[in-house]
Predict the structure.
Amino acid sequence: SPQHGRASRVAPEVPADADRITLALIALLERENARENNGRPGSLTESDMEDYATIIGIVAGLHDPRALNALLGAIETGGMAQEGVIALGESAVGPLVKLVDLVRSDDRGRSVAASHILGQMMSRQPPVPMSAANRALVHNTLLRSLTNADRIIRQAGVIALDAFSDADVRSDMEKLAASDPFRAPNGHFIVR
């Protein structure tokens, strides 16, 4: 994307200041996240949103582990922030697991986005390099999400678990299909 191209050009232009520029871009994204998350609905203009997307793309393109928290603050915006988190690999697993396990209703969107990212990390070809312990952590976290009281988080877990085909996943999906209390107006269940 154009933002990723810009990110790769920022640091080489001023090598002596590359670290300072990188940290300033990360701090800018953190400020924009706060502005986006704390603003009243409709308070940001279209231009504000375009600028926010540009900043997300640039920071995601840095592939700098120091940007993880800033990118996590933008994961509800979709692809660029989520791809930036995935590019950081295994270092993102712990913070993503914490987001999936959130129980506050105001964090539902972040929890769902974190489930999506974990599912993407597990299904990538070639796979995202990850220790067996972190693969197990992701697996168990997503299985746990199937018992969450919030049906949207359960549904995100179902989708994210598509990357796994082991007996535990099949068994838990069968249990969910048989007992999930949610039934959509069209009569469909989360899993059936």
